[in-house]
Queue: 4 jobs
Job 1
Amino acid sequence: MKLIIILICLAGLRYIHLGRTVKRYNWFTSYAVAMQKYLQAIKQPWIITLLILLPLLIITLLIQLGLTHGIFYVIEFLFAVIAVWYCLWPISLSEQLETSIGKQKAANDQSASEMNDDEAVDPEEGDTRALTEAMLCHANNRTFAVIFWFAVLGPFGAVLYCCIAQLTKISSRPGEGLNAIARVAHTLEDLLDWLPARLAALGYVIAGDFSNGFKQWIHHFNGGLSSNQDLLISTGFGAMNINPEATGDEEEARQVLRLIDRSLIVWLVVIAIFTLGALIY
């Protein structure tokens, strides 16, 4: 059933535009800030973080456990679909890529128009390497990790990861009043990312150049919690035979996007194999 739920959610995010806006998480920012003000007498960041997360996680877990009986099978299925769909990042990487490239071109055109002819910038000078690196990491944060924790813990796992990821994001912003728990939120996210990041990177290896990618994967595998992004970027570059010292371009970014799509297919095939194995045995 989990494979069907994942496929429905991924298809819905790709082909249905209803609700596909990052503003749908704005309520969580208001909730976290309000809880932080209510708990400001507590001086322990770990306790504050847990108290912010616990109400949402307890509600999700109670609903999940309450729907496990056979009579609620359809409602349980719908609840899981809604939870996973909501926790997956609503903006696809392909949309983000095209939007970023469009903004970069517009900025380059504006800069060129403000210069004299002899000061014009080479159109190939614009570096999209940072965008390529971000996509390799965002694919894990926005998709792979959510799917992984859903596969392991059900809707509770997806909500757990999404809440911590959002808390990490908003606690890093200045002026939100949550900076005191930023380190705790980052640590929790890195902890939840450790295994999914390695599996996502292994997907890059299988979907790309296995030899070069696997060397990078092995080299970074035993890294600590802070090594997740380095592992994803280095393995992705190795699987694509990309020179990290060279300047990136649009075509490279699109090739990395295709690598991510292929690795997602690898993930789905693996989940399907485990699902069929569970049904057989």
Job 2
Amino acid sequence: MRQSAPAKDISYRLHDIDATTLLFRVKKGAPGPEQPGPRADIYTFLQSHPRSNMNDLWVNIPSIGFPGVEGYEKARKIVARMVDRGILETCGELPLEVVDARYERVDTCDLCGASTKNHPVLFWKHNTPMARCTGCGIIYANPRWKSEYLFGRYTPDYWEHYTELIKHTAIDPAANQRFYHAPLSFLEAARQTGRILDVGCASGEFLSAASARNWEVYGLEPSPIGSALAERVPGATIYTGTLDTAPWPDGWFDAVTLFEVIEHLQSPTAYVEKIARLVRPGGMFALTTPNIRSLAYRLLGTRWDPVGPNDHLYLFSPRTLESLLRDHGFVVHQMHTMATEAETWRRWLRHPALHRLAPALRAATLPVTSRLMLGDAVFLVARRVEE
């Protein structure tokens, strides 16, 4: 149990976190509220029950025990105001997974196996702490949402929104080919059997582009809704599930792709290990993922959209990605980063009057971001070492 934290960290957990981890007590010498009501009841309860958490107050004090999630939020705001006014103070905290059953704690680093006990928390966002491994440098959520809650967010509304976002590249064959031309060109060198697998294939837009270039296309998608959409791709074989239960034999594919997926996985190492078995010796593995070394992250910090710990459990850099693949029998064939978008500069400039400068800033920094691999996302192609 941690007894202190930076003021900004405490403020976040007090005012913004859904399941408040902090413990409370009456501040020495603080007068009680003059009027009866929730504040007076909290003051009285904490005098006899110091070091109580938010759940203790919510459950045991009838006047603040408003029902449901909205009730908890109302109760939390009352307590936060009392802390801000110097009536209550924080005096420690409970582990997040104790106060919120959606979370689980990770005891060892997935990439290097180091104990997570002393890994520093860099920041909190979306109610979740992000830590850095002192062994390999990976940034990861800990504690994090359990798998059932992560997969539970892929609702019909999500897929409706997703298909709207990608409709211009998914529906128009020419646009789809342009969008996926680069990764498919790199993977052509691996073609022998002609079989390619897209893990996390969503609605099958990459499979459609690969099929048009005469690949024998396979897709894996854990969401039944996404899987049904992908099955519309002519000639595609789609498996609904995860790599843990995938039916293909070792060495079955010339190439496997993992686009914008690895950051969502509870064990990137386990997935890369399975992919290494599925790719034949000399075959290719391609992936994309947000780049935590990016200029965008340096400009926006936690305001950068890919920093979303309840969705992106891991934040990779080119170095941590290359290390992960090397440990599983891959040699990097090609790696670069995508350019920082003009929208990033607009958000950094903040004031609308300055937004017109964004395209010029993007153009001016493009050579540096490309050379130093500071772009928004990493694109990597690796070859499985010949046996």
Job 3
Amino acid sequence: MIRKIVFIALALFFIGCESKTETPYQKAQKIVETIVSFHENLVRLSIHAIPKGETKSRIIACNVKKKIGIFSHPEDIQAITEKKTTLLHEDNKIDIT
């Protein structure tokens, strides 16, 4: 399931790169919205990146708008740097990074 979502996200990103009128952030947001529209069981889907001119990773796209711009949490950084999936239980939800 996770690999399928990642593949879809990458495919949509590269397809979206053809558009010259959208910023990378707008493209990323479109990817998130498209994936979430096909998977109604997803509570939150975020894309993290280090914005140009900055040194810390932030959420650059998310289906929960108030999360956009927030710095990445330690488990997000760990998943990225170690290339490992992290799993956290939060209330009655599972956070997979």
Job 4
Amino acid sequence: MRIMVVCLVTIAAASCHEQVGRLGSTSSGSAVDKKATLCAKLGDHYDLPDVTFEVRGPLTIEEVEQESLDQLDKVRRADIPVRPFGFEGEKWARIKSRCRAGDEFYFFTSDERSWSYLSGTRGYIVVRGMDIIDAIITGMN
């Protein structure tokens, strides 16, 4: 009888594990997992282990450039070049030139606490697979 119970419990557990694995591989689940992984990697990338990050994306190149231009419109200054990322436009051009098919762009920002402690940062990252391959900073304090 004990052997039968152990077998049934093992079968039920394996079945549940398999079901959870299938549920976790849905596109929305994997997108959430990817964003969580990227948030953790941002802490490592910027050597800010106690800071929480948020990411938004994936974004297209066109969306990133439009967001950059929208931000520049808010702080109109004659000395800022009118192009995506203003003074950082050349860096943005280099980042785009190194991109491959399948690379993704994400906006990121550090948590409110980091901004209040003058260690906030935000910008865009380029992600290949699960690796951050480049970044452009749009704000920091």
